[in-house]
Amino acid sequence: MAVDVLTETVIERPVEVVAGYAGDPSNAPRWYSNIESVNWRTEPPIAVGSRMDFIAHFLGRRLAYTYEVVELVPGRRLVMRTAQGPFPMETSYEWSPASESSTRMTLRNRGEPSGFAGVAAPLMVAAMRRANTKDLARLKQVLESR
Question: What percentage of the chain carries pLDDT values higher than 70?
Fold first, then answer.
């Protein structure tokens, strides 16, 4: 079963502020509750081909994975992909103006789990949707309080 979870929110900050903050992987531990750390394998700033090691906790498990940036349209779209492990994942962010001073941010996670992860896919979808909703709410709180 393929996993495809799409979540969005409107943040009362301009696109360049939201994209600048959320599009910098170094900030991920500040707004993703499950991400413990991000270590750059390539030199920042972010660009197509950038690689970062993430340590996360999800459904009671510690996960270590490397994301590679496969698409970047500054201020509009960021796509990162990992291929290793039982659950290859693609994460994409899109930013668009919701008004002159607010941003619609879309967070999408999709992948094709195998093995046990494939069997647990329906549980994973529900857990990912809850986590993404919570994480976007945290991002909104962080950025709107600046």
Answer: 91
